[in-house]
Amino acid sequence: MNERIQILGCGELVAANRKNTVTAEEARDERGRWTDSDGYTATAKDGKLTVTSKAGKTQQTTLSQFTTVDKNIPTPVRTAIRNNGGDPDKYVWINGQPFRAGVKPIVEQHVAELQSAAEKAKQDFNIKVPGLEEIRKADAEHERYHYLFNKTMERDDGGRFPAKPTSNPDALRKQYPAAAAFLHAEGYSRGSHFAMSAAGTRAMERIKNGEPHEQVMKDMENEWSEAARRSVDNS
Residue 120's CB: how many other CB atoms inside 10 A? Predict the structure, then answer.
């Protein structure tokens, strides 16, 4: 099963953690890099976290601007770590995998860098591709309209309904297909599954770089479909 593979993939890390007492602050030796007394190293750069053991075995995951580091590890995984002699409280949950808690600072640092880069890319893209901000604004107007409309209906007190926006998000998406494709990819990049998020992030970057949005969308959908299929096959 997928979960079993993920747990076994960190088995060596679990076993080594029995004697690890180095704190995250003590272990950080340089920007984007983490080491500990057991010979483990970790780097967070170029959108990827890589942990390498002294024996050369690696554990990796993709990082994006939306990656989070969660202290709440699923119960079956906590049990597996404990059964291997490790302490689950010394691990964090990143993209469906348990990683040593010591990597948390470098992951959060790199995620902040990715967020900053994404914001800059967004600003640059707004200049390069017409219609992006118009669509965003129209979406926001209609979202607020529906929220206020529903609140008025819930109150049922004869209150005045909000005025319907004059903007047309669907028409704007047809008028500006590249911007619409970018926003669709942006939605993928915020997906809860790391493979969906990675596919969306790559698609955003490709559209930003001027690649044909039609092909980028096909590739993104195919990438996610294949990842979902593999997940089902391994379950």
Answer: 10
Per-residue pLDDT 10s for the chain (235 aa) are 343 433 323 444 443 333 333 344 444 445 568 887 777 789 999 999 999 988 888 999 999 888 999 999 999 999 999 998 889 998 999 999 999 888 999 999 999 999 998 888 777 666 677 798 899 999 999 999 999 998 888 877 667 889 999 999 999 999 999 999 999 999 999 988 889 999 999 999 898 888 999 999 999 999 999 988 887 877 6
The secondary structure of the chain, three-state, reads CHHHHHHHHCHHHHHHCCCCCCCHHHHEEECCEEECCCCCEEEEECCEEEEECCCCCEEEEECCCCCCCECCCCHHHHHHHHHCCCCHHHEEEECCEEEEHHHHHHHHHHHHHHHHHHHHHHHHHHHHCCCHHHHHHHHHHHHHHHHHHHHHHHHCCCCCCCCCCCCCHHHHHHHCHHHHHHHHHHHHHCCCCHHHHHHHHHHHHHHHCCCCHHHHHHHHHHHHHHHHHHHHHCC
Is the pTM above the cut of 0.70? no
In the chain, domain spans = 2-111, 117-233
Could you give the angle at which helices 213-233 and 177-189 cross, rounded to 10 degrees? Answer: 20
